[in-house]
Design goal:
With about 375 residues, this protein is α/β, with parallel strands linked by helices. The strands form three sheets. Strands 1-2-4-3-5-8-6-7 form an eight-stranded mixed sheet, sandwiched between helices.
Amino acid sequence: MKILYRSYDASTTIFKELEAEYPKYFKIESIGQTWEKRDINLITISKNIKTANSKPALFYTGTIHAREWIGHELAIEFASYVLRNLETDPTLQTYLSESTIYMVPCANPDGYEYSRNHFSFWRKNRRQNMDGTYGVDLNRNFPIGFVKSTNTSSNVYGGPEPFSEPETQSLRDFVLAHPNITIALDYHSQGNVFFPAHDFRHEDTIDTIDMNTLCANMAEEIRKISGREYGIHQGKPPAKLISGSGREFYYSQGILSSVVEVGTRNISDYMEDMNENIREHIPALIYALKEVDNYSKNSPMSRVNSFDVTEIGSNHVNLKWDFTIDKDVYFEIFRSRSDKHFCNASNLITKTQSLEFSDINLASNKDYFYNIRAVNKKTNQK
């Protein structure tokens, strides 16, 4: 697969062609305009585009930083892959019958075009500041943790106030108008790492395990394709470096949210290195789509309570938990040797309807980590 690093207009043309070819599944629309009056494209993919907004949704944003082209290119390739395989892939049919994909492939069209045509390392948008400098870092222009600054020439200048920019206003308005969004992924480069949202206290929240496990399972999909290892670092880098990011704003709206830093050389001076990261992220995104319905705000499924160790022996551990008994619900338990680990078939150690379990034949003097999930066998919601 050869990526051409297409202009913003070229990608718009591609999306319009996909809409013409797949009108039942795909729609492109504008959710606002930039400082230079470019439309900010939103694309929607669903098994039935007419009912897309009634289903829980994955929200993808790319290239909010102008020089980080990979988000834009990955969006094009992911949308094309889903549409071209939807009618023959029963897995995609199932996921898109239950959920919807919203994508803003390029959240910073003005900056992206400036990066492509004038200065490849340009990061901000193209606002003309009062002192004659240009640009606001759009990923510092959201309100959660916003830091006011007068250093307009800085690459991380967050603007005169939160949501001062038409680009972030458009993202805000779309998210607030779509409470069906359950997972938000903001694609950047570079670093081979996931940065799940945090509350600026660097403490675990009720959603910490959900976000870490989602990222770990996506990372495992990447590893299976390329062998590349992705880290998971909630609350890092230090909060002062990421004040006012979109990630925390989405999380403040009850959405599981993470930044995805793709690759290690995906800034625009290394175009040849970008190609290798496209293919490995498509199955990771499909995994995220699988999880969208599980975090629907209307889901009747509740969390398992009081998951505790009741006994530790030389080679066994007894586990116990609380849950309202339901004949349609069973529990999956996963065992790992490290924290922030994936939870999939390879480390699933039991399925049970009991409220306790004894894990035996363990090695002594070793650390083990357990996760539990309730599953409704009729709806398959987890």
